[in-house]
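User: Study the shape:
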Amino acid sequence: MSYPQTRLRRLRYNPILRGMVTETHLRVDDLVYPLFVCPGTGVKNPIRSMPGNYQMSVDVLVEECRRAVAKGVKSILLFGIPEHKDEHGHVACEHNGIVQRAIRAIKAEISDIYLIADVCNCEYTSHGHCGTIVDGDVHNDLTIETLAAQSVSLAQAGADMIAPSDMMDGRVGRIRQALDDAGFEKIPVMSYAAKYASGFYGPFRDAAESAPKFGDRSTYQMNPANSNEAIREVAEDIAEGADIVMVKPALSYLDIIYRVKNEFKMPVAAYNVSGEFSMVKAAGANDWIDERRVMMEILLSIKRAGADIIITYHALDAADVINGQVIK
């Protein structure tokens, strides 16, 4: 049956009916808020390329987490800027590492919060790459030993979830083994399973002070032209014990999110990355777009594509919109 018997606009005239037939719903519970912790006390350094985001010392970070929880955003993804770096990223494994200290401080002050610890070496190596360099490239098998040790250290500090973002082969299985051997079999692993070598990461590298000192990351992050390879990467991580798989970035890879969700039928996270965020903020600041409307449209598109979890720097503003509050 078609027009005039069928008139699809009948479902759009009344706002109550539009709400009843809405297919995709974005909830505050879907959102994860990424935060950057740095040394010092009372530190809140603005990140120039990410308006409204900061490098925060532990004491300031605790208050930001308290603010997030008050808005209903109870899941936090933590990145660290350490006091010093080394060639291998071993500083990330230290008992008193910057993220480990942050986790303990947050857990001591806030009970109703879920802390996800990013596991990678780029913030912690003197060269800015994601692992140990041998012959000018990241050595896969040496690197995953550091990642496993880092994961156990973060779990010991109180992390609720481990999220390896390095894209080394076999790292999920090695991390899972290390966590289980240390008695952390209940700690889930959310793998950055399909992480692309993207130009959208630029502002993050300012925030985390993690730009590579030479070359690029194309030998370990994925080629943006490839789709089937992403499915192979996700399948490998699932076989190694990943509990949640992630696609990163989100907006230019909605097709990958859709494929992963439909092929594997398991929890899928998507990272709405720094460049995607900053473009919206810049266009909004220049009155080129309705920032709030575009923000929500983007997040809904990620959810509609199949993501169960959305990691986004928009998290608190989106929570205000979902909760019916005015963005501040």
Observations:
- The chain has eleven helices and twelve strands.
- The longest helix spans residues 140-157.
- The radius of gyration is 20 Å.
